[in-house]
From TrEMBL:
Keywords: DNA-binding, Transcription, Transcription regulation
Record organism: Zoogloea oryzae
Keyword DNA-binding: yes
InterPro entries, alphabetized: ArsR-like_HTH (IPR011991), AsnC-type_HTH_dom (IPR000485), Dimeric_a/b-barrel (IPR011008), Tscrpt_reg_AsnC-like (IPR019888), Tscrpt_reg_AsnC/Lrp_C (IPR019887), WH-like_DNA-bd_sf (IPR036388), WH_DNA-bd_sf (IPR036390)
Any matching Pfam family: HTH_24
Record field: transmembrane: none
Gene3D superfamilies: 3.30.70.920, Winged helix-like DNA-binding domain superfamily/Winged helix DNA-binding domain
Top-level taxonomy: Bacteria, Pseudomonadati, Pseudomonadota, Betaproteobacteria, Rhodocyclales
Protein name according to UniProt: AsnC family transcriptional regulator
């Protein structure tokens, strides 16, 4: 973050709060005129500080009532089993996050499903069939305390 000044940080904070801000409103919030604000925004995008714009959707309204945190252990770390596992998981819309982690398992996934039956079918029919999988441990979310994507700036 050495290349960012306080105005760049202010732009990033404002966009994390509301990605739909117009350039005029963003410029007003960060005390710039519109053209310099637009230039900074384009530089932040080009330099990769802003990777995407998206809408946060309400999963419950969309019928996704179950959130599971799943630890996956691979039995075979040789060859391309890990790469095949990662590629297949990356293509699954039910998997919101997948991290290769240290500790007792190899991967930690966050998965959403409509209900427990749908989650059980996903584990049985999809996760267990992935290359190299030897163990799956699920933790179901009872209540969401905090959900967000805003990074501390």
């Amino acid at each position: 973050m050495d290349a960012l000044d306080s105005t760049d940080i202010a732009i990033l904070r404002a966009l994390q709060q509301d990605g739909r801000l117009t350039n005029a409103r963003l410029a007003e919030q960060v005390a710039l005129s519109e053209t310099p604000c637009w230039r900074r925004l384009k530089r932040l995008e080009a330099d990769g500080y802003i990777s995407a714009y998206r809408a946060d959707l309400n999963r419950r309204k969309l019928g996704l009532g179950v959130v599971a945190f799943v630890q996956v252990t691979l039995g075979d770390h040789a060859g391309d089993a890990p790469l095949q596992f990662e590629q297949r998981v990356a293509a699954m819309p039910e998997v919101l996050f997948c991290h290769n982690v240290t500790g007792e398992c190899d991967y930690l996934l966050q998965i959403v499903a409509a209900d427990l039956d749908a989650y059980g079918a996903f584990v049985r029919d999809t996760l267990r069939g992935l290359p190299g999988v030897s163990a799956i441990r699920s933790n179901l979310s009872l209540r969401e305390i905090k959900a967000g994507h805003a990074l501390p700036l």
